[in-house]
């Protein structure tokens, strides 16, 4: 029999699709989202976000290939309308490897590596908010936390605090001296339970030192009659953490625009950050965050990320303490605000119904364990 000729030439097999691993979340062509962090998107310009979406600091952009007009089979229908160029999108907030990297502690570290947070308190009978914030700052990983209070309030704090340190602080002159002498005090919190008059006195001294600083509650309301005075003192290491009522005291026009729908919360917050020259975290079911350079982030606590139990007295004080603790640890204001908002809601979900504000700091270890820390 004649020898068999060569067989038909078969086309080469197409290359196998890249494999995405949950550990790296990367393909040969770039970054992808792990399967366990699936996202659900709905259309709500200018942000695409669904209630089940949880991200952290993942910048979304419209791809030019995706925004180009598709080919049309029926040319009689006319050309496709022009499409916008690729534009930066608002960052969303999810727990992933990036968050673990931000929150992990080195094996060879000591307490001063993770900063010293100073929480200013009000007078006797007004210290509960400061204690909530101080405990949250310590739980989130600040190396040291000190509550600074008027001398008559020291005994009240001492009866309820152990790991948190105490120091008497009578006036703004003493605060300037303290910050001048101890450069290790690298993150400050003013506002919770301070009282309007004490806040109005202390805020200029705190901002003079140009340390990372969170202003909340009374430290915001104290300047409601003259927001421009506050804006003139703010710097890019500051985080403002207002709820919508406090936001309206500093930015009444933006609050009204957000209320009537002419601006989204993210847009209003971005304008506020630009005007104030610092990071702004607008608290709510949709917590919007913006930096003075135009970065924006959103934590939308709805659906699987809902945390309705945060509607309780003192929860905002805990959030401001978490953000302060993260600043002490060295996170940037924008990172601290976004990470703090996620941790705050995650702690509430971990506890569930019956939550009171004292429970939130105690749930942070469970949240960290769930993150694999």
From TrEMBL:
EC number(s) on file: 4.2.1.136
Biological process according to GO: metabolite repair; nicotinamide nucleotide metabolic process
HAMAP family xrefs: NADHX_dehydratase
Catalytic activities: (6S)-NADPHX + ADP = AMP + phosphate + NADPH + H(+); (6S)-NADHX + ADP = AMP + phosphate + NADH + H(+)
SUPFAM superfamilies: Ribokinase-like
Subunit relationships: Homotetramer.
Entry-linked Gene3D superfamilies: 3.40.1190.20
Keyword Nucleus (UniProt): no
Boundaries of every YjeF C-terminal domain copy: 94-371
Residues annotated as binding (6S)-NADPHX: 129, 193, 243, 317
A single MF term (Gene Ontology): ATP binding
Organismal lineage: Bacteria, Pseudomonadati, Pseudomonadota, Alphaproteobacteria, Rhodobacterales
Name under which the protein is recorded: ADP-dependent (S)-NAD(P)H-hydrate dehydratase
Domain of life of the organism encoding this protein: Bacteria
Cofactor: Mg(2+)
Keywords, in A-Z order: ATP-binding, Lyase, NAD, NADP, Nucleotide-binding
Native source organism of the sequence: Paenirhodobacter populi
Entry function: Catalyzes the dehydration of the S-form of NAD(P)HX at the expense of ADP, which is converted to AMP. Together with NAD(P)HX epimerase, which catalyzes the epimerization of the S- and R-forms, the enzyme allows the repair of both epimers of NAD(P)HX, a damaged form of NAD(P)H that is a result of enzymatic or heat-dependent hydration.
Binding-site list for AMP: 283-287, 316
Enzyme class, spelled out: lyase
Gene name for this UniProt entry: nnrD
Family, as annotated: Belongs to the NnrD/CARKD family.
